[in-house]
Queue: 2 jobs
Job 1
Amino acid sequence: MKTNRLDLIIVIALLVVTAAVYAQVRDFDYVNYDDPFYVRDNLIVQRGLTGYGVKWAFTMTTLGNWHPLTWLSYMLDCQIFGAGPGVHHLVNVVFHVLNAILLFLVLRRMTQARWPSAFAAALFALHPLHVESVAWISERKDVLSAFFWMLTMGAYVLYAERKGPARYLLVVFLFAAGLMAKSMLMTLPLILLLMDLWPLGRFEKTRPPAPAQAVPGPRGASGGKKRRGEQTGRKPAAQAGTRGDLRRFLPLFAEKVPLLALSIAAGVTAIITQQKSGAVVSLTQMSLADRVGNALVSYVLYLWKAIWPSGLAVFYPQQPWSPAAVLASALLLAALSAAVFRWGRAFPYLAFGWLWYLVTLVPVIGLVKLGDAAMADRYTYIPLIGPFVAVSWGARDLAERLRLPPAVPAAAACGVLAACMIVTHGQIGHWYDSHALYTRALAVTEKNYLAHTNLGAALIADGKVDEGLGHIEKAIEIAPRFAHAHYNRGVALERMERRSEAVEAYKKALALNPDYADAAYANGNLALERGDADGAVSYFERAIRTPEPQPRAFAGLAEAYLLKGRVDEALSSSLAALEWQPADAKLHYNIGSIYIYKGRVDEAIGHFREAVRL
């Protein structure tokens, strides 16, 4: 009873402390980095859970990701609470708190070690590197997929304790759900195999009986030489060990084959969708040697930021690393690996933590390069659990070896967590809105063209067009081939009534990225203003045909068709627009007008009534 009470106190403490640190996000706004696509301007998501929306969630690969459960979670938020940013932020916090609690419970169940489990979970809950995954609405996929990661681990522990088909199917179901929230869970089967080694000890449970040893006989006068054909009852040590290890490994590996099949399917899906969206960087753009170098340096930098989390930013521009930096990183990783495996048998949590870190970062370490970022804090959300476990159990063993009074390690742990809370609270504040986020990024990074671009876009949206255009020009100076900067330059020029220059800026964005739907839509609107129906149709159709279509282009296309007198095409486009914008009064009015023209009065009256109601 006392044990359960202590565990409950720890769970409550994790909940209260984590919620207190993150409570400020309830007043935070959307940021203009992915949030418009995921929620703020996503008309389907804002409608809540609808039949069309559910179908869309399972078929859409917006921003190069297939994560239907993430989309459904946003829709459910909007269904219940509306589209305001505060609730979306708080739901992220709820999942983060649940993840920390589940991590504690799973570690506690596996190891029976209460305080190391609590410390590892607290580090996970309060570490500054995890702020990005929690405070950014668009990273719901991180906290949601991690929720299923923890549940899958917990279900697997129950399965390992007592095997059965129902328990195994639960593991498969939870893992599949996690993959539908974010494909990064593809490494989880390997982590489950790692758990078999430690702390579950399933390799030992599958160890075959030791071979019988020969009974010593009387030694001859010759000094004990074996007679011809005499057997010792032993096999050579290396051979016996290898075969024994393989016999223990194969049944445990076979359990993971269905899970690995799901991982492979998720990985292939992720690569295909990212390629369609244009997010995959080709080898001609970044060589394999540069990718490997960046990966080695990133492994080290993530560890350093875990120890000393300063200078955190939403975006770290790609930069060429010197051969010395790459070599030093490789040597450090090799030395750490050698030390871990040297002491891994005596302290198995070291190998567990280190391999967890190395393996779980593989999908996002940059060997398959996605986007322009060198690294990202959000990528550490799951991987740092490994080092946290190694540190927690290592600190316990060190305290025992040094025979420290219990108050000493407890005070040290509280001091570390207090420092994390202070830094994390400050880091969360940088996510208040777009201005705060990118101002901070520009303060701690160099040549950050994305921060200049997005800060410029935020300033333009606030009416500070000249100041915003200045940031956009700086971004173009740093990265002249960054299409998003040219698009935002067009927005600024259009706000300044310099429409001909805006058209050229949008064209430049389209030249750099032919699938840039927003740029095509913007030029379509400008063509409509000029009365150029043919030009408008061309641009709007282009905006619709892209991998990530601009929904508002359907309504624009309808207007362009009306200008050309193509009423049937205008009606078809208007009805398509209505799927995305069911609460648009003007759209209902236009559809009603078309029905009047076609003599379908009853249908027209229905749309006019809806327009009046709206």
Note: The chain has a mean pLDDT of 89.
Job 2
Amino acid sequence: MKKIVLTIAALVALYLSADARKYPYQDPKLPVDQRVEDLLNRMSLEEKVNQMSAQLLFMDQFFEERDYTKGHIRNIGHFLWDGNIPNDPASAAKHINEDTKRSIEASRWGIPVLQHGEALHGAQWGDATCFPQSISMAATFDTDLYYQVGLAVAEELRAVGVRQVYAPVVNISRDQRWGRAQESYGEDVLLNSAFGVAYVKALEGSGVISTPKHFVDNYGEGGHDSYPSVTSWRVLREVYLEPFRACFQEGGARSVMSSYNSIDGIPVSANGKLLNDILKNEWGFDGYVVCDYGAVSLINEGHYMAETHEDALAMSVNNGLDLELMTTHDGLLDLVKSGKISEEAINESVRRILKIKFELGLFEEPYVNEKKADDIVRCDEHRALAEEAARKCMTLLKNDGILPLDVNKIKKIGIYGPGADQLCLGDYSGGRGGWRGEGAVNAFEGIQKAFEGKAEVVLSKGQDVNPLAESCDVLMFFPAIMEDEGSDRSSFKLPSQHVSQNRDDSNNQIIDEQVLLNLAVDQEQMVRDLIATGKPVVVVLQNGSVIEITDWVDGVAAVLEAWYPGEQGGTAIADVLTGKYNPGGRLPFSWVKCIGQNPMYYSIKPSGRNYSYVENDGKPLYPFGYGLSYTTFEYSNMQMPEKLDKDNALKVTVTVKNTGKVAGDEVVQLYMHDEIASVGRPLKELVAFKRVTLNPGESKTVELEVPYRSFHMYDKDMNFVVEEGWFEVWLGKDAENVIDTRRVYVK
């Protein structure tokens, strides 16, 4: 009888469910394409153009000015939050659910809104878990770890109902003056591609739309953000487009953000060669293109290529843009009616947008469980993962033997510098005014805890390094710099004055106002004064791009690059300084001696003359892939075939042994050079890498695989081909330190 009752109940539920579904698009059993076409055919032109529009509102505007017919919204819990409403996870989920409900009710067909936001190094709404910045994660050379970080970020996004984010940033950074270099994965094509794909796979596999940005080549001469690109189409193909292609074809990204700048004189948001010919037709991208916020308006207001916003919008839609972010004008409908945009162009864009909404299951499950959000966001597991990631990004640049510090011999430590007691997280962290989560650990707090009951740790404020220094066994300096969106740099030296007057803090900020005030100190002079005391000085850098350290690096005992290590960075810094953790990070960019060498990157092409300057040899202070350890490693028995057949991957093995006394991580790096080519090719290119952990005396055989695609090149006619011939392959500890070399003939 019980089975009969359950069966009847199930049948009734099915009947009621089927009865409620009046139209084919409402049937989740039908193929997505069929549902899309059914809904598209029912929609009015106005309803279609609303799906191509989005809104960005600050909290004091949100409830009064929100147009619920718009298909996309910067979610109410995002960094636009200003503290006037509760923004804990449960509250954010509640507000987003309410916004979604009102949006569905405002739609004749019950079309759900797509709540979007940012997630560069954490779900950027409220105080979700703040992981290390992108450049920090690149320094780990560990894509498996990054994938796990991506899964955690996606879980915190979905917990409150955010289903699309504008991440990752896969703009290759070869000019460290660019203030957004920290958002990238550094200078290398493979590193950017591998980390971009890892993050995209984690997001997309968890039901969050990833939007790689900024498509493409997002800075120009002088390191200026969004300046017009003067990069040739060859270099665009070889370098700057490749990470995007990988994110779409290998990672499965279903959206992309076009950049503010122009390529070959054409703004990217209206660049048919990029958006239609390459992205959609050549690469087969079937997602949708969004423009960076306000980029369409800039076509007429910034690039001066259209008389009105409506003309700029027509140019963009006709050349491949599918969705305008931050709609400032409602001219799209009139443009179709006037014939400046065809309705079929509208239909094509709306197909792409609706397809993703159906794939996400938003029509069936548009809401989230508000009560579960608090249990997911910043849970113990995610905070532990943030701490692990912070440890793995730590990169040791110099060590005269003072590190790790002997906790049994040190009785007093002097802590200096504006970055010591601040959470230096990097940009795109938290809400307006910065991330404010509880339980985070800055460097000073981490060191205090590590030496609790063993040594006195004293924080010194201001310019004067004495008299504290005289009574200390070790001195530590924690500088801070200004860099982020809107803050490009013309000097790599440590700032010595208040520099905020030339930057715009309305979007996000790297460090809070207290740090800005502290930057009034002359940091370069402070380092020199610390060195002059005769006490050992350890400098811990927290930054996302090059700092010019040449003038004082010889006088300090150690330099640790901690990057922007996330909310648990203070603990990770202390663990490395005390030897609880052995640093294994590596530089994701070449570290110049002075700003005059910039831009610099290791994979240069052959020169007609030489690479040096009058003042120096032209080489970096520290090469790409560089990083020290508290132990030593030995390589042996490199094995690889002498010939490689078409479409096969090259497999290389090598034995790595930890020859020191402590456990440690080594990053095995494989580089390659095409010996003879029909066009100029880089002198070396990273083609594979793997991070391995070894106990003292332990050996491992490491296998590296180079896909056949890596042997391709663009010939003189820009055909993507493999030219049969010899390739030199070598193992390196970094881009300059060669361990072993082989040759392979590729067919």
Note: The CA atoms of residues 260 and 298 lie 8 Å apart.
